[in-house]
Design goal:
The chain is an alpha/beta fold and 340 residues long. It contains 14 helices and twelve strands. The protein starts with a strand and ends in an 8-residue tail after the last helix.
Length: 340
């Protein structure tokens, strides 16, 4: 396993660097022919199992070879990853669609490129047994990972569609409370402090196992692989190596599901300190499709929903994808090409 630091409230000092020094350091390393250190972020979720499996199986290390190493850091929310990306603390990251959109918008389209999908599905709105309709959530408190993240937008938009209002400050008909880490939302649900939440796997599965009912299985892209544009420009070969590992990880998940589940559980436990029940892992994998297709249509839908909620200003996503390197890797592996 490649060493990494656990982040539950923000970036650790071990993974950070000054925003102004990153491009200079990588350029110097490239000029000297030194091995490249790829600072990679991901979330401590099963929806990010592509990263977990690639780390556990050594796919990143194998494909980078002597040309580089991966320094992996786990985050508890995509919002924190966006902050780290914009601060120059990450070179690549597995993120949800809304954090990717936010990084793109906040940087005026200069910070990142989406270079691959990783997963679709694997997130649900889970509520207390007996609640069967959105109207019953009026006056109730619901958890999400963070304000404006993918599950937060999905919950608020779904409630809005059914005439239940929310506000960014926790008001409205239903009270949405950003809660981290995600495991805290599970504990609050189990103890009856909240009526439910919109959570990614494995946390939605754990809420169901604690007596919850799924009101909505959230569709569309859940996990994307992004790189900073400065890193893509300075180290295209390393980006290709990352993509080889990503494709290899998803192939492994499909061909060896039992081994992949064990890998993801073991790797996740190294960050959280506790493995998940095998039944929770199996149920989590069952609701996720691990695919390299970034599902551009659903990304646009996510952006439109965030705009309609007032959580995002209108954004032009033209140019957010660079799937050329991915398609070269897929072609070499004899797999189908992907269009953005």
């Amino acid at each position: 396993m490649i060493g990494a630091a656990l982040l539950l409230a923000g970036c650790s000092s071990s993974s950070s660097s000054s925003a102004g020094s990153g491009s200079t350091a990588t350029s110097t390393a490239a000029a000297a022919g030194s091995p490249v250190t790829v600072r990679l972020g991901f979330l401590s979720n099963i929806t990010h199992a592509s990263a977990l499996v690639a780390l556990k199986e050594g796919f990143f290390a194998k494909n980078l070879g002597s040309a580089g190493t991966v320094k992996a850091t786990a985050f508890s929310s995509g919002t924190e990853e966006t902050t780290a990306i914009l601060a120059g603390q990450l070179d690549a990251a597995y993120v949800g669609p809304n954090p990717a959109i936010n990084a793109w918008q906040k940087s005026g389209g200069s910070a990142i490129k989406i270079i691959s999908g990783a997963a679709t599905g694997g997130a649900s709105i889970v509520v207390t047994k007996g609640i069967t309709a959105p109207s019953q959530l009026k006056g109730k408190t619901l958890a999400t990972p963070s304000l404006g993240n993918t599950q937060d937008v999905a919950l608020r938009y779904w409630l809005k569609q059914h005439g239940v209002t929310t506000t960014a400050t926790g008001g409205g008909d239903a009270f949405v409370k950003p809660t981290k880490p995600n495991s805290a939302a599970v504990l609050e649900f189990k103890s009856g402090q909240i009526a439910g939440g919109s959570e990614p796997a494995p946390y939605d599965v754990e809420m169901v196992s604690d007596g919850g009912t799924v009101l909505l299985s959230e569709p569309g892209v859940t996990t994307l692989l992004v790189v900073t544009q400065s890193f893509l420009s300075a180290h295209p070969a390393s980006v290709t190596d990352l993509l080889k590992a990503q494709v290899e990880a998803n192939d492994f998940i499909r061909s060896s599901p039992a081994a992949a589940q064990a890998d993801a559980n073991a790797e996740l436990a190294s960050y959280t300190g506790k493995p998940l029940k095998a039944s929770v892992i199996a149920a989590s994998f069952k609701e996720i499709t691990f695919t390299n297709d970034p599902d551009a249509a659903s990304l646009k839908t996510d952006a439109d929903q965030a705009v309609s909620l007032g959580l995002l200003k209108p954004v032009d996503l033209s140019g957010i994808y660079d799937l050329g390197p991915l398609n070269q890797v897929l072609a070499a592996a004899g797999e189908s090409q992907i269009s953005s």
